[in-house]
Design goal:
The protein has about 260 residues and is mainly α. It has a single domain (about 10-235), classed as Tetracycline Repressor, domain 2, CATH 1.10.357. It is built from eleven helices and no strands. Helix 1 runs antiparallel to helix 5 (about 95-120) and helix 5 crosses helix 7 (about 145-150).
Amino acid sequence: MPNPPKPPSATRAAVNAAATLTRELEQRVLTPAVEAVASDGRKQRWEKHKQARREELTSGTVDAVRALGADAGMDDIAGHIGVSKTVLYRYFTDKNDLAAAVTFWYVESTVMPRLTEALTAEMDDFELVRTVIGVYVRTVSSDPNVYRFTMARPGASLPVTADAEKLFGAALESTLRERLAARGTSPDGARTWSLAMIGAITRAVDDWITHPVRPADDMAEELTMLVWGGVVGVVRADGDPATFVADPPRIPPVESP
């Protein structure tokens, strides 16, 4: 399948989508922690101190999780940082609030920069899919405790995690939309396809990081097979569901024994 030159606007679209949504994610994380700032100078200084202290404790939590594991409790984290648990609760309402702050740090400082770099690289379509998936899997596998504490926390509902997935989806959607349009393929389903890709990849990686029975490279290639197969099907049908259903890609029949 030939690969037309990547439109220059695709790079801008992916970067702009990521930047905009990162700001939205930051606002959602910081708003609960920072009260409305009054005109009183002392109030402003206190809010700045409070936010700075949250950032210090977030950094300390990252170190604690890396050393102690993703299941570390508030007592364990506080002890590793060298503060009392009371101090943690002074700046974070509960463990979910602390995990949300760590999740934002992880997304902003590690995951999104690497994915955005991959999404905006000049490469053909297959290599783009393979590279982006590989970057995500290897990023997760390089810091498994932090990932499990943030993106793959069992039994905890973190809105910031859902927001992060929307952020990834939006960046992928803008790139997918540009690339499909450049081929003359209808991009109308780009949002559906991008969110489906993100959902499949993150759910598979969540399970794999807890039970890593296969090497990271194998995991990445298996996901690449699934996603690329879907992309080929979409392009083959010009992005039209009716065309796809009328003539779906065929697989070899089962041979009789």
